[in-house]
Amino acid sequence: MPIICINTNVPSRVVPTFFHAKLTNMMFQALQKPREVVFIDLRAEADLMMGGDRNACVYATIECIGRLNPEKNLEITRMLEDYFIEHLKVRRERIVIIFKPVSALYCSFNGELHDPKIEQDLDLPLCPSASKETGGSSE
């Protein structure tokens, strides 16, 4: 259930057509969550100002049950910054990323609340989509 929201004042015409699909694949692999539940919410042309100017900038949030910790957050930060620099032409010092851990009992999917075990990443061996896509084993 990772939800990645990207707000940027970059014009829509600058965003490559593959942006969402490639970012979905990157986040699915980084967070080891099924691709089917990775949400990408891109809001180009947002009315954003950073530091008193309107130069290109990005404010992103990543909400996820489990997986988020200082080491993983830094890994994802570097990956996303590089991606935004390359494809949105935003300078590193103009990118802010906020990580928001979500309690499983406060998130529903398919009519059910999530199992609290995933908050402790106890579902990692049970993530068959990640195993198939990355060529890894679920054992």
Automatic annotation (TrEMBL):
It holds the Pfam family MIF. One of its GO terms (molecular function) is cytokine activity. Its EC number is 5.3.2.1, 5.3.3.12. Keywords: Cytokine, Isomerase, Secreted. Its main location: secreted. It is an enzyme of class 5 (isomerase). GO terms for cellular component: extracellular space. InterPro entries: Macrophage_inhib_fac, Tautomerase/MIF_sf. It catalyses: L-dopachrome = 5,6-dihydroxyindole-2-carboxylate; 3-phenylpyruvate = enol-phenylpyruvate. It is found in: Secreted. Coiled coil: none annotated. It comes from the Eukaryota. Gene3D superfamilies: Macrophage Migration Inhibitory Factor. Belongs to the MIF family. This is L-dopachrome isomerase.
